[in-house]
Every structure is written in C-alpha cells, then in structure tokens.
Amino acid sequence: MECIKCSQRYLFLSVGNTLEAIHEKVGGAKIRYILFTIALFSFPVMAQEWTVQNPPLPGETLNDVVLMNTVTAIAIGTSGIIYRTSDYGSTWNTTRNLLGVVDNFNAITSVNSFAWVVGDSGKIVYTGNSGDSWELLESGLSIDLFEVFFIDSLFGWVAGDSGTIIHTSDGGLTWELQPTNIDQPIKSLFFLSPSLGWGVGWFPNILKTTDGGVNWEVVSPGLSYGYTDVYFITSSLGWITTRNACDDATCGNIYFTQDGGSSWTEIFEPGDGPFLPQIGFSDELNSWALHYWYNGWGGYGGTDIFITDDGWNTYTHQLELMEEYLNSVNYKEEKGISVGNAGLSFRLNVNEQKWERLSYTAPLNSVYFIDAQQGWAAGERGMVLHTNDGGISWEFQQTGTLVQYNDVQFVNADVG
C-alpha cells in the first residue's frame, strides 16, 4: 500500500487499480472505509465484511430492463442476476443466481404485474407480482433464448438460437415448438394480436405469421445481412432496424413498411455507426432508437439514444455516451430507464426530459475530502464524482472530456 494523501483525519491508500479511503470521524473512534471500484462500499472496524454503500448498480452487464409501472423497474443480466427498484432507480435490490440459475438472462417483457425473463440454456423465469417472487418455468429447451413477447397474461412467444420459436397459451406453464425453417438466431418478436406477428434476427429475411405462429411466412426484403428489432403499430405500419456485419449502406438503419412487411423504405440512416439494437414507438410519429456508433478505428465508440416526433424526418440526441454501452431502454408514460454494460444505468428526468446517470462505470484513481462530509473522486474517461454526505451518496459531475484523471485535490468547496 502507498500513502497518497495523509492528514490528521484522513488516510488514502492505493492498492493496484483499487482506491481505498480510510476516514476517521471527527471526535470519535469510528472509522469508515470507502472502496472505489464499480460500486461504493462501507466497512465498520469491528465487522469483518464489506457492505455496499448506496450502490446504483454494481458491475454486472445488464441486458434488458422493463418498467412495470412508473416507479417499479426490473433489470436482468449476466449469471442469473435480477435488479429491482421500487423508487424509480434511486435504490435497487439485487438477486443473484435466481432460483439457482447461473446462466445469462437476455430479455424481459411485462404485462401489468406479470413479467417473463428468458436466458441461456433454455431458462425461463416468471413473476406475477412485479418481481416480489419468481418461479422457474420449464421450456423443454437447452439452447440460448434471446427474446420474449407476451400480448396478455396468457399468450406469449419466446425465440432463440437456431431459428427456434416456442409458444404458450397458459402464461408459460406449457410450451409448444413452432417450426420456422430458419437456422439462425431470432432476436426480436412483435405481435399485435394472438394471431398476427413478426420475427427478425441474424438472417436476411423477415418472418410473419397470421395464425399465431402455427405457420411462419418468410418475407425477403433484401435489405441487410440481418435485423435487430421489429415494431408494428397496425397490421400495415411497421419498422425494422438493421444490424452490423454487412458491407453496404443498409447497416444500422431504420426501414418502414406500409403494407405489413411486403416492401420496405429506408427512413433513417445515422451515418456513423453500424448497429441499432432497439427501437420503440408511442405512435406513428413519436419514436426512439438505441444506436451504437464507430469510433473511427474499427470499434464501437459509444451509445446514443435518438428521439423523433415526426416519423424520423428529423431527430435529436436525447443521450450521448462515449466509450459506454447501453443494451436496453424502456419507457413508461413519460418515464424511462436504460441499462447496459458494467452496471451502466440511467433514468429519465420527467421535468427536464433528460437522462440522469444512476451508475458510474469508469475506474476511479483518486479521492479527496476537505472535511467529514464533502469529497471528490476522479478517474478515467473524465469521471468526477462528488459527495456532500461523507460518501453515503455520490453525484456525477460532467467534465466534458474523456481524459484520464490520476489525481484530485481541493483547497476549499469551490476551488480544486
């Protein structure tokens, strides 16, 4: 250990890439330890264990999120992990290895208080009370599952690897296989009724059914090597997003159909990125899309959330991230939650309609306190955090840069 900053009341120690702050309270012998990695922890002297100190979301990758109502959200991710908030993201309860599941959870959908989660190795779990308790459902499959869609508490579909689709009419108690004649992963499903639905995935065709999936018609629009998402608001009006791994201008764009999917027209081309993993609509004009963009050196540079109120004739950036990656966005009325890699999470400020950061994913390299309550931490990708309650809670301070900060010091509350 190396003593970085020492004073009468504070001792800061650096251990490799981990930063520990050991804080002795004024006028007392109690010591609080704060560990800066992905989350924040506190450690009483007499207790021989670390406890999480008001974490946003710890470092697991989160693959999907759903708002059950305007305050309750459920996020799912790697190694059978489920996070649940009942105060719109201010605090989260964590369940790891839910029902003994250690496989990755990949997708979640909800209807009122019901929710279904699917994951690797054929895993499906279900809640009927907004996540208070869960049940493991038997899918009869061992392949990885990537998508789940329910139109009510009974009728639902699950899709996965090797062109697999299964259907239930009893809320997931039993499932039947629906042949698709596709051997590639199916990534997205959308149904308007128990009979009418569409499916897309890592293949150049679009699947359509008019009998609930008993038969799937293959439509060939010839747009891309594959698709990431599909969304319809009527039997005629729908949209698809195209994936990367192609070598032409059809990568990462949005296409629109007015005839149920027989023909498609490009309506949105970001121009700087290959991947639009998710799209959603409240009506024909108002929409949002999640977008990954290239950094100019052959890799992903970050994530955008685009929004439009004129059907993608024009659009604005609702959120721009550099070197951080969101995997899912979900809106409920005027509220929204987004989650991603390394526990990355945001919530939409209803009054300002701007995204508020709930978690901090960059490594932190330095911490400095000017008194028992007020301190700062700084690290990579321009990350600066501030606390005014002794580390119980932290807020992100935007620096506008992506530089690496190795040290932070303040002479008073204003100058540093």
Mean pLDDT: 80
Low-confidence stretches: 1-56, 245-250
Percentage of residues assigned to helices: under 10%
H/I helix tally: 0
- Describe the largest sheet: 6 strands, antiparallel
Structural class, please?
mainly beta
Strand content: over 45%
Radius of gyration: 23 Å
**Spatial order of strands in the largest sheet:** 1-2-3-4-5-6
Number of strands: 38
Distance between the termini: 25 Å
Shape descriptor: globular
List keywords for this structure.
six-stranded antiparallel β-sheet; disordered N terminus; 416 residues; mainly beta; globular
What does this structure look like?
This protein is mostly beta strands and about 425 residues long. It contains no helices and 38 strands. It has strands at about 1-5, 10-15, 20-25, 30-35, 40, 50, 60-65, 75, 80-85, 95, 105-110, 115-120, 125, 135, 145-150, 155-160, 165-170, 175, 185-190, 195-200, 205-210, 215-220, 225-230, 240, 255, 265-270, 275-280, 285-295, 300-310, 315-320, 325-330, 335-340, 345-350, 355, 365-370, 375-380, 385, 395. The radius of gyration is 23 Å and the shape is globular.
